[in-house]
Here is the input.
Amino acid sequence: MRVIMQTVWMLFSAGLLSVWSLQACASVEIQSWQTSQGSKVMFVAAPELPMLDIEVVFDAGSARDGDQWGLASMTASLLGTKTPELNEEQISQQINALGAKMGGGVDRDMASYSMRTLTRESILKPALKLFSATLTEAQFDSQIFERERQRLLVGLRQQQKDPGALARNTFWEALYGDHPYAHPISGTPQSVAALKLDDLRAFYQRYFVSANATISIVGNVERKQAEVIAEQLLKGLPKGEKPPALPQPKALQKAEKRVIEFDSSQTYYRHGQIAVERGHPDYYALFLGNHLLGGSGFGSLLMEEVREKRGLVYSVGSGMAPLKVPGPWLAYLSTKNDSANEAAQVVNETLEAFMKRIDDTHFQAIKDNLIGGFPLRIDSNGKIIGYLSMIGFYGLPLDYLKQFPKIIASLSKEQVLQAWKKHIHPDKMVTVMVGQPK
Amino acid sequence: MKRIAKIGLIGCITLGTLLSLPAWAGKVSEFQLDNGMKVLVKEDHRAPVVVQQVWYRVGSTYEPVGHTGLSHMLEHMMFKGTKTLPPGRFSKIVSQLGGQENAFTSANYTAYYQVVGKQNLETVMKLEADRMRNLVIDEAEFKKEREVVTEERRWRLEDKPRSKLNEQFNATAFLNSPARNPVIGWMTDIRSYEVEDLREWYRKWYAPNNATLVVVGDVQPQQVLALAKKYYGHYQPEAIPELKPQREIEQEGLRRIELKGNTQVPSVQMGFHVPSLVTAENPREVYALAVLSSILDGGESSRLPQSLVRDQQIAAGVSSGYNATDRLNTLFELSGTPANGQTVDALEKALLAEIEKLKTTPVSQAELERVWAMDEADHVYYRDSIQSQAMILGSLVSVGLPADTLDHWIENIRSVTPEEIMAVAKKYLHRDNLTIATLYPDGKGPRKIKPYTGRL
Here is the structure.
């Protein structure tokens, strides 16, 4: 493969629509309503394939761990292992026998659960019932808990020998200090070892409530049917309430560099700062600028400078992760230890030059990329449901996808530079290097 | 972390996950240009988007000793300019169209693709056709890109002990077959490529009669054919070299290697030599092996996660895999990581015990039905992505299998009997046909650093 995109950043860079493509493209018509229990529903009808995607997102990410790091992640991993009616083996047998796919994941902001199923009546009905039961009637079994904890510990121990993971964890920690975003999503071996089953039960009761859920539906059902599905899905949960807002993180006051010596052939480098939250009015300008700087693979300046001109790396780029409260912007790469400082220097120079002046040709090319590439971002149910969850969870306007390209098209170079100068401070960044940088 | 991910240089497409062909599933139109280039078109009008892929029948199993990774290196050079296009320009143009593009190399093929708005199909076809015959491999660009590929190897292999284990496992399981070659190439081979090696590899394999064009999306087959004729049709066919069979010798006893690496957790990888759909004398054996693989590791309720992870709690993660569509004889693989407090030896024994069970007890009807249900559903799900649809077509045709292999896959899978599964288990999954590779921690703490010598 010529280039591997870091999926996490692809996900975060998503969210655009083109003024041109409006004629060419069947745009996504999002419908939204509340269930009687207060869950927000996001729906797009997609009758072409006989299948349905559902995703349920709770504000129950690792930022809600408190000082019990790994709590959200561990709780999430026990959902789907037991209900009052079904044991673990019965659940997995039923899912597989229906040909349904169920999965879940936790990031800093959210715990999300998804199901993909065929819409044939004999399959859809039991699949929905099963999905609903795993979410609303979760039972926490001590033996399963212990087993899953041990499995997680194997993974966490392995991470301590993974230079890429070390760089990631160190970067968040250096950036966020004592903020709830600082610790690793899955916790640490020590924090996971200290978790108790009752902690998981309490976390589930507190956060897995209807008012704290967003339900997204894409597929071969009509609005009326989607309303019934959404209403039934979380019926078993108490209404509850949303958790309080997260604290605002504090920006760094000066540059900080952390070097972790590690026996690896490459140095893993991360360089960045806290930027903006999802929904911030300057996000569009920052996003457009980042797309040019390092967010669009071979269309971006970092790729040109560090890889194409100098052959220093295989992968290099930059990304923004806007979250509920300001998330990071960062540049990343990995290179043989002997080139680490040189590559870091090129990143700094490229960022500095970019913030001084943006070339007209480059600026037009990157706008064309975003606008012309929009139809590709919504060409499958799997992609569309990702946007629904994002728009729903972060409370973005329903016409977000329609507005985004218009705003992108309207931005001037000066506005982009202004936003960057306002939010991005190259003299106050965290630099992490794991390896033996020279 | 429900399951520990499998290791591989590029994602493999397992036919075992796909099934029958209902009305909405879309027909494939097949053409051949006068110069021998194959053209496959599949309509999917859900979005105004199209993917173009060009597949060359060349990959790491085509490479002679000392030249491993050459196909992959050439893949990188394909972005470095033609007689009329300066280096890097290709990607800039696709980017400005709002397109996504990339390329990938495997044991069996090298492929290039662009996903674009349908109005841009002609533009990317013109570009792709240009580099089929007009590539310029400049010495300075080549040297720089060779550095990039060494960085890619470091990133993918050198700091990832499990990937390294996989590479060495493969080179142990295969002694004389080129299936032993790492796709990215051994570091010493990468370092000693000369610019002329790349030029020669390009001349040898990049010709219309060694390529397949696959287009899936919001298009009409006749319109694609007309474009293909216009842009690819005027190239002359070339004499494509015939490969020697290099058939892997019969294995006559267990092979075993150990690797010590920078890891805290040991792991094991095992493989038995088996035929693929391309090489099998009796294709029913392939279908039986595919079902057997799903019985072991198709979904959470399958035997390996049920028995080894949840019931016996010997494994933290475990998997099996079988690439039924490799060009050459392939491996039926098992791999896993022991649970906390368990040894890698115990895990190895438990994995082999699951294999023994398959030889003595017929699989149940319920297990077979589960495999069918999952395959049928997957066959609908993969249609959500035009890229997946194109990948399957290209990968089949590039190893010499018919494009409609998939259409018949389901009925073939459904006809597999418990007796046939027992028979292939007995015939292939035995000790004398087995290679085992084990990764052990090297015991060094992260702070006790030895100078990295590269061990290249």
User: Anything to note?
Assistant: The CA atoms of residues 282 and 433 of chain A lie 30 Å apart. Chain A has a mean pLDDT of 93.
